[in-house]
């Protein structure tokens, strides 16, 4: 299959995962240094997020994407401050990973795999890839790897959250960020390649079902 890019290159997965790791690092650092102060932890997380946002804007990133990331950190901080529970800073992550696993499963079952929608959007194909049965099948099977990624996070986060282990949650968030995303991208890319028939032109060139039959 003549396809130069990997999924990591197409989806810019490394940068997104690294960006998601920095505010939790700030939270854990502030929380531990201040001997368990939620204000210090959330304050440090917001400062990290603000600095990261400013840097991204200077590099020319879309302001909307930057604001959404910053807003997520601010909401997480407000939840923790409101409840007075440091572990609640990670509550959004717990819910989002649970919801993501369910949504990805549904997308696979209805034959609209989210991996195909994401890659198709990046490649500006809209839904042309759905006319290619082989590509749909490959995206479905590759999407199961992403489901596993979210399930792993929930399986680690939930016991730590229930035990009130805020610092360990922060460490787990970082550990299950870029390393897990990198593994997910690599394995799902391998699954896609393994499930495309020999001679298929690749992700950038979906084949219409009529063309395949001809």
Descriptive notes:
The chain is an all-alpha fold and 214 residues long. The chain has one domain. Helix content is 74%, strand content 0%. It has helices spanning 7-11, 13-33, 38-58, 63-83, 91-109, 114-122, 133-162, 166-175, 178-195, 209-213. The protein is elongated. The mean pLDDT is 88.
Return Rg in Å: 20 Å
Q: What is the CA-CA span between the terminal residues?
A: 20 Å
Helical content band: over 70%
* Structural classification: mainly alpha
The coarse overall form would be elongated
Pfam families: DUF3159
InterPro entries: UCP010219 (IPR016566)
Keywords: Membrane, Transmembrane, Transmembrane helix
Transmembrane segments: 28-53, 65-82, 102-123, 144-164, 170-192
Write the layout of secondary structure elements.
Blueprint lengths: L6 H5 L1 H21 L4 H21 L4 H21 L7 H19 L4 H9 L10 H30 L3 H10 L2 H18 L13 H5 L1
Please give a handful of descriptors for the protein shown.
single chain, 214 residues, mainly alpha, membrane, transmembrane helix
Q: What's the short story on this structure?
A:
The chain has 214 residues and is mainly α.
């Amino acid at each position: 299959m003549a396809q130069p890019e990997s999924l990591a290159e197409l989806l810019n997965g490394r940068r997104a995962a690294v960006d998601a790791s920095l505010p939790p690092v700030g939270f854990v650092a502030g929380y531990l240094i201040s001997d368990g102060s939620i204000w210090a932890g959330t304050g440090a997380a917001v400062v990290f997020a603000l600095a990261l946002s400013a840097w991204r804007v200077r590099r020319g990133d879309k302001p909307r994407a930057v604001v959404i990331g910053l807003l997520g950190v601010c909401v997480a901080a407000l939840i923790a401050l409101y409840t007075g529970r440091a572990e609640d800073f990670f509550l959004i992550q717990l819910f989002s990973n649970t919801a993501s696993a369910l949504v990805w499963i549904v997308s696979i079952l209805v034959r609209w795999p989210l991996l195909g929608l994401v890659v198709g959007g990046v490649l500006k194909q809209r839904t042309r890839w759905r006319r290619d049965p082989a590509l749909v099948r490959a995206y479905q099977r590759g999407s199961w790897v992403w489901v596993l990624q979210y399930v792993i996070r929930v399986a680690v986060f939930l016991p730590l959250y229930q035990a009130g282990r805020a610092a360990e949650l922060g460490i787990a968030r970082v550990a299950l960020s870029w390393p897990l995303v990198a593994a997910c991208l690599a394995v799902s890319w391998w699954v896609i390649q393994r499930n495309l028939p020999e001679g298929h032109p690749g992700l950038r060139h979906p084949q219409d079902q009529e063309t395949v039959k001809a």
